[in-house]
Structure formats: C-alpha cells, structure tokens
Amino acid sequence: MLRSSVFKGVAALSLATAMNVAFAQETYKIGIVSFLSGQAAESFGIPAVNGAKWLVEQFNNG
Q1: Contact 49, 36 (CB under 8 A)
Q2: Where do the structural domains in the chain lie, given as residue ranges?
Q3: What's the pTM?
C-alpha cells in the first residue's frame, strides 16, 4: 500500500516537472508603462524600468 502511494506521488511529481519544462520554453513579451523623459523620469520612470528588467532576469534564472 505504501509502495503504491509513493509510486503515484513520484509519477505525479515527474509529470508536473516535465510539464514545467515544456512551458518554460515559450517566449512571453512583457511591457511596462513608465516615464522615460521629463521630470518624473529620474525619480520614478527609469528606476521602475530597471526594476522590471531585474525582476525578469531573476525570474528567468530561477
């Protein structure tokens, strides 16, 4: 009984991992609306864009 449960758990985990790898190969485009010029660019816009780029890098690296 325990062996059957363990086998089912391992099979489900393997399937879930294989599905994640298949989905990880898709390309997504992400846009950000921000100020890149003007008075708000220095304090809000450019740091927001840099933060979004950093977040995407962290997400892609796992």
Answers
A1: yes
A2: 2-61
A3: 0.54
